[in-house]
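Ticket #4471: structure output looks truncated?

Reporter: J.K.
Steps to reproduce: submitted the chain below (677 residues) through the standard prediction queue, then opened the result file.
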Amino acid sequence: MAAASALTAFPAATRAGATAATPYTGAYFDGSAGNQIGGTSPSSFSTVTPESSLSSDVQAFDLSGNGQSWTVTFAAKTTDSGLATGTYKATASSASSTSPGLSVVQSGGSTCTNQTGMFTINDITPTVGGVSSFSAIFEVECNGASGALYGEVSYASTTPFIERTVSSNQLAFQSSINSGGTDKTLTITNTGSGDDIFPASDLQILGTQHQSFNVQSDNCADHTLTTGQSCSIVVEYRPASGSTSASATLYFEDSLTPIDSSATASAPIGAGRSIPLSGQVTNPSLTGLPSSKSFDYQRVGTYNSTPTVLTLVNKGAGSLSIFGVDVTGANASDWTGSTTCGLNTLATNQSCTITLVFSPLQFGNRTAELVVDSNDPKTPTISVKLTGFGTEGYYLVSNGGQIAYGGDAQFEQDLSGAKLAYPVVGMTPTPNGAGYWLVAKDGGIFAFGDAHFYGSTGGIRLAQPIVGMTATPDGKGYWFVAADGGIFAFGDAHFYGSTGGVRLAKPIVGMAATSDGKGYWLVASDGGVFAFGDARFHGSTGGIALNKPIVGMTSTPTGNGYWMVASDGGIFAFGDAHFYGSTGNVRLAQPIVGMAPTPDGRGYWFVAADGGIFNYGDAPFFGSLGGAGIDSIVGMAPTAPPLYTLVNSKSAARPANRDRLATRPLPDDPARALPQK
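Returned output as attached by the reporter:
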């Protein structure tokens, strides 16, 4: 076999779905209980990319889908002439002269130092440096663990692609000596596009205590499941006299399991898909979970550093086996955490914990269910209703530095009563929305709440006035931009370039940073866009005759797009930014002066000089100053951060009036000191 070398990827092929016509491209993983290879199981992968190889003995594939990335490598023995159709047994992590190789590795996942298994290649067409078609099934274990990961990898193959699910990864029985036995049903469903074929002798039960389990019925044997069809296997647990428990493993064979007829209970690779069986004579009792749990109001895109801990206790006489702990429901992604209960066994009076953190992804009421599955015969599944409320809000700032606020925004401090040398021209929030910076025309900085001062140009003679600012993602720095595109970086903000020495057709009016803070965009009043650092140019209106000038811009949470807003509220969306509405055809009392996005980028707000608020997409309305006779508003900022990351924040204050805007009175004359509250 040729020595290892740098690999380059072929163009990825994408499987169109279960109904796609041949050739078939895709991958499918199905992990049994105790699988230590990793990943979420079962999982489908829509993209399969064969890596180029200098040897016909080895072929690797890069898989991606469902938020996971894997590499699966098949290798013949180093003494073989190359990979071919057939079955390869007793594989190791790397091929040798005595063993073929099989390696299944997740990007960023756990690392298994010793993988053993087998695979069967059903289709392979070698080409120079790779393959033009391929289909194989495999079984692999980690460090001799009792569980295995089963899978299929197909690339441009005419062999039908198979996906199937099992109703349970293990069957746990509760019974008594005099009960006469307890039955459990395992249902297997074909969810793929190819037929799943079961042989006539399709299953066996292995283990030293296999006599305690019997197959009552099997309508899968000698049967072919077409797409959407199911079959079932019924297993009975009948405890032996004097026993308190028993365990064994059911193995069934189908088109997704490579088979080795010599497999045994002590060396089960090739016996088929494993389903652990456990029987318990005594009855456990799971206690400690409430029927519901309410979480504090929490700002969207943030989490509370003090998690909620639930303690589960086994108050029964027998061992309690916990098969799974999961959060499900409409807003399940809003709750994260950890548990010591997963796949755990608790003796009488032993306990385990579930730690939950509420981090809402959208505004409003959020609901989910915490589900715990166990072998408690009375309540095998316990559900806890989870509720919380995701909050958002925004700040408005006047040219005199006075702050108005709505939703969950909390007034930290402003420049009321201060005599300013130059008017305020903009603001930007800290990552968790618990503070903000105000920037004046001369680059003077005013930091409030958890915002820190990192520097200013207040004492520097500027060629052109400051027109805007934006902060770095961690809030430990910020940039200013001047009307000539001059950039001033402070704190951990880095300088990536400017238009300070460029002759501009129109002045710069705003800027926005990329999601990682390693670049930024500048926008001119004609909609011309200038990209620096890792900011990518997605388009502009620099060559378009606009009805009104551009007054600001903001980026999407991914950093792969941006919006620009004109003074008439016209919106121009580029990259992955979507159009949700505008005031371009609305007669405004005062011009639009700024905009802000919602955390998920599926909406935005505009603010006019009179404090009028216009909300679009999923942006909630929290009140405005429109009609109050004000014309001094110069910008706005959201409280919730973009959802490319979650930031630590204390629980948000409950908005007492979520549809009203709280404000210090703004005077008609911005130069006059504001009255105090």
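Triage note (M.O.): checked the attachment and the full token line is present. Residues 1-21, 652-677 have pLDDT under 50 and may be disordered.
Status: closed, working as intended.
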